[in-house]
Write a structure and sequence with these properties.
The protein is mainly α. The chain contains five helices and two strands; from the N terminus they run H-E-H-H-E-H-H.
């Protein structure tokens, strides 16, 4: 995105304008970045406080550039590979929860009653029959 905003006319309030200006995300895309964060586009337009399409001011571009540089500097200081490896190791050490018990022949499943515990429901009994549905 840095290359894109440095080498293209940047607009706020739209994806493109009729004079060749493009939004920062399209500029990033044209320079190899593959992102589609709608939240960035909304934040960029809200930061610029505009409802119309216009060129970004020098101040807005300078602020965006500084924020991107700060984000990259913070990213370089973080070793993402080490964080992922640490997470996977922690997950591997976790004791799994017991999700089910083994069933023996003739034992009811979890949550089921044995036939001795069954009771007839008066509201479901057929008055003309001795069969309970």
């Amino acid at each position: 995105m840095l290359d894109g905003i440095r080498s293209n006319p940047i607009v706020v309030g739209a994806y493109t304008d009729s004079r060749g200006g493009i939004c920062p995300m399209l500029a990033a895309h044209r320079h190899g970045g593959r992102t589609s964060f709608v939240s960035f586009a909304r934040a960029w337009d809200a930061f610029a406080r505009t409802d119309t399409i216009r060129r970004a001011t020098e101040r807005e571009l300078r602020t965006l550039e500084h924020l991107l540089e700060a984000s990259l500097a913070r990213e370089e200081a973080t070793d993402l590979g080490a964080a992922i490896a640490e997470h996977r190791a922690a997950v591997g050490r976790r004791v799994p929860e017991i999700l089910a018990r083994r069933l023996k022949p003739g034992c009811p499943r979890l949550g089921q009653r044995s036939p001795e515990e069954w009771t007839a429901s008066p509201s479901r009994a057929n008055a003309s029959s001795s069969i309970v549905s």
